[in-house]
Amino acid sequence: MPSFDEVLKEAGEFGRFQKRVFFLLSQTGITFSSLFASIVFLGRAPDNFWCRIPGAAELSERCGWTLEEERNFTVLPLHLGNESISGECERLDVTWDTSVSCTSQLSRYGNHSTGNLPLAPCHDNWVYEQPHSSIVSEYDLVCGNAWMLDLSQAILNLGFLVGAFILGYAADRYGRILIYLLSCLGVGICGIIVAFSPNFTVFLIFRFLQGMFGKGTWMTSYVIVTEIVGSDQRIVGIVIQIFFTMGILILPGIAYLIPTWQGIQLAISLPNFLFLLYYWVVPESPRWLLTRKKGEKALKIMRNIAKHNGKFLSPHYSEITISSEEVSNPSFLDLVRTPQMRRNTLILMYAWFTSALIYQGLVMRLGIIGGNLYLDFFISAAVELPAAFLIIVTIDRIGRRLPFAASNIVASIACLITAFLPEEIPWLKTTVATLGRLSITIAFEVVYLVNSELYPTTLRNFGVSLCSSLCDLGGIIAPFLLFRLAAIWLELPLIIFSILAAVCGLLVLLLPETKGISLPETVEDVEQLPCHFGKCGKKWKHRDTNSYI
User: Which spans are transmembrane here (predicted)?
Assistant: First the structure.
């Protein structure tokens, strides 16, 4: 009986069929990245708001004041009395009598006496010039409630984390395409509910669920793509990242054209319903079918792939070799039971955590240093495009491990240099920081590919999902780490990023090299993968030369 890789080579490793599936599933990257970074525009700070004095609303309506007139009557005297008070988070502790004339009831106080009036914190009487432009104005996430905005992003990343465990496990047990389609449905439904949430609690609950299902769509689409192509074509795992970047590039344009946060939320959520049409054009992963002892179905799909690729499978193929490894429900213990699997798992978990923490930290740092939000966001996304092309031209020539390590080391050096460059030469500081962003993007994209190549088919989706869950943990920590440390010293987060990236660059040198090697089918295959640092497997057959490495 032929092996799966032998049948795949005869059917076509990256023919018309795989290219179609790759293009269709890659669209998931656009919607997922938009969800991933949407908080930048959903939660943008309102341009102008102030705290309304009790009774002022009724008087304003009765007297026909404009918002500008009401603001002048309430906030201006407060500011004149104490220039350090802007009127956004504090108000004068007075109540307006709505039965009197339409003149400001603060006019009888002079500037000096107004400054002596007692102050009270504002709780729920904020007035916004654009009340539905973001969730900040929708749910009053200002002043003492500003931390809730960070919470909303942490909740999304928590959803990613839970989705990695639950849906990663489900995809290995019930099938890739089934979980992909259910996840697309979940993202669409939860996205609509988020857009029309009556309060912030409902918003958080369904944002968490949208994050959970969103992670399911991204991880399963990535695994399907890497499992239906030959080892020489697994570079598609890097190319698919370009679509992730495309989503980041498109997002500021969507936010610029759509004035409300509800409109932005719907624009990034509704396309997920279109992915349900893939039920008729994207098959189940034949590799996964083999691990579930469904060889006949796998062979049927392979014959269909060969037909679409203009090739023909030998009629003598009545069955494909099924892994002799016992199929069981995957668990974390399966990932650390043997020495090489344990080493791979721990290093990959750290690499995911570091890449995500630094990547999100550098993105959010744009909000601290100021500038045009739409333009800066677009430029920072455009910086990521060369990353995929640099990987494509190097990874099949010099392997996975060296670019993986080098990108982390360069990111570490760039962050360290940026921290100590003087503010007087902003162009140099921006250039070096951009180099750091490019380098950590390369590391982020390589870890996707390496992760899928270092686990056997029976554990691949679960292994990728579990290791990448540390990415979500990094995403949860990133906003709190960035803003708390920046409050001490603006560049302190860059020092932490530099240390984390340097350690990661050294650790990934201990991983096996997977250039030109067939995807492992069993844990035993993983244990035999070759490496040049540390004690790894001694023999592994190169898929093209059939010689042992």
Answer: 21-42, 151-170, 177-196, 202-224, 236-258, 264-282, 347-368, 374-395, 402-421, 427-450, 462-482, 488-511
Question: Which residues does residue 127 pair with via DSSP β-bridges, in sequence order?
Answer: 50
HSE-CB of 117 using CA atoms within 13 angstroms: 25
CATH superfamily for 1-43+140-312 is: MFS general substrate transporter like domains (1.20.1250.20)
Residue 333's contacts (CB-CB under 8 Å, 6 or more residues apart) are: none
Q: What is the pLDDT of residues 354-397, one digit of tens each?
A: 998 998 888 777 656 656 778 878 887 888 888 878 888 887 78
Q: So where are the chain's domains?
A: 1-43+140-312, 330-531
Tokens found for residue 501: 């990236």
Mean pLDDT, the chain, integer = 81
Position 284 scores a pLDDT of 93
Which CATH architecture fits 330-531?
Up-down Bundle (1.20)
Task: Give dist(CA 422, CA 425) in Å, integer.
Answer: 6
Spell out where 400-489 has E strands. none
Taking the C-alpha atoms of residue 292 and residue 28, their distance in angstroms, rounded to an integer, is 26
3-state SS, one letter per residue, for 317-339: CCCCCCCCCCCCCCCHHHHHCCH
Q: Helix, strand, coil shares of the chain as percentages rounded to 5? A: 70, 5, 30
Residue 530 to residue 548: CA distance in whole angstroms: 10
One-letter amino acid identity for 272?
Answer: N
User: Encoding tokens for residue 255?
Assistant: 């936010």
pLDDT (0 to 100) of residue 369: 63
Q: What is the mean pLDDT of residues 53-71?
A: 72
1-43+140-312 and 330-531: identical CATH topology: yes
Residues 6+ apart with CB under 8 A from 422: 429
Helices (H), 370-424: 373-382, 385-398, 401-420
- What is the amino acid identity at position 63? C
Q: Is 140 left (phi over 0), alpha (psi -120 to 50) or beta?
A: left
Residue 363 tokens, joined: 């993105």
CB-based contact 338:523 (threshold 8 Å): yes
DSSP secondary structure letter of residue 126:
E
d(CA 5, CA 1): 12
Query: Which pLDDT belongs to residue 52?
Result: 74
Give the Cα separation of 131 and 137 in Å (integer).
5
194: left (phi over 0), alpha (psi -120 to 50) or beta: alpha
Q: 314, 316, 320, 329: which is closest to 293 by C-alpha?
A: 320
Q: Which residues touch 460 (CB under 8 Å, ≥6 apart)?
A: 172, 223, 227, 452, 519
Q: What's the pLDDT at 480?
A: 77
Task: Give the C-alpha distances (Å, rounded to integers) separating 429 from 379, 418, 423, 425, 542.
Answer: 15, 6, 7, 7, 45
The pLDDT value given to residue 426: 75
User: Which two tokens mark 506?
Assistant: 């050294």
Query: Could you tell me the maximum CA-CA distance found in the chain, to the nearest angstrom?
Result: 99
Contact yes or no for 214/32 (Cβ under 8 A): yes
Q: What does the buried/exposed string (b/e) look like for 301-322 if buried means 16 or more CB atoms within 10 Å of the residue's CB? A: bbbebbebbeeebeeebeebeb
